[in-house]
Amino acid sequence: MKVIELVQRAVISDEKQEMAEMRKLLNFVLSNSIWCDGKLTPNYRKPFDSLVLANAETKKARYLLGTEPGKIGIWLAR
Q1: Measuring CA to CA, which residue among 50, 62, 64, 51 is closest to residue 73?
Q2: pTM, full prediction
Q3: Contact 41, 33 (CB under 8 A)
Q4: Cα–Cα distance for residue pair 75/66, rounded to 1 Å
Q5: With bands split at pLDDT 50, 70 and 90, how would you rate the model's confidence at 45?
Q6: What's the pLDDT at 23?
Q7: Distances (CA, A) of 13 to 25, 69, 72
């Protein structure tokens, strides 16, 4: 829960943070990301990798099922 709270606070305060603080946060969340042919491929540290995967699966399920946010038990299925 603390990790999720940290990410939520980071998104909200993103515009207010100084570059050095934003860099620290990115270094905390990301590791060895790749820039190739004008495209960034992020490599997330644990547990952020699981959060990104769960988010992608939820979006896919919403699209396929045509359901509203919060009505999918993807967290319960794992």
Answers
A1: 62
A2: 0.55
A3: yes
A4: 18
A5: very high
A6: 84
A7: 12, 24, 29
Residue 71, both tokens: 């009505």
- Please give the torsion angle defined by the CA atoms of residues 48, 42, 68 and 60, in that order, rounded to the nearest 10 degrees: -110
**Both structure tokens of 62:** 């919403």
SS3 per residue for the chain: CHHHHHHHHHHHCCCCCCHHHHHHHHHHHECCCEEECCEEECCECCCHHHHHHHHHHHHHHHHHHCCCCCCCCHHHHC
On whether the CB atoms of residues 30 and 42 are closer than 8 A, the answer is: yes
Residue the block writes with tokens 């946060």: 25
Amino acid at 1: M
Please state, as a whole number, how many other Cβ atoms lie within 10 Å of the Cβ of residue 75: 9
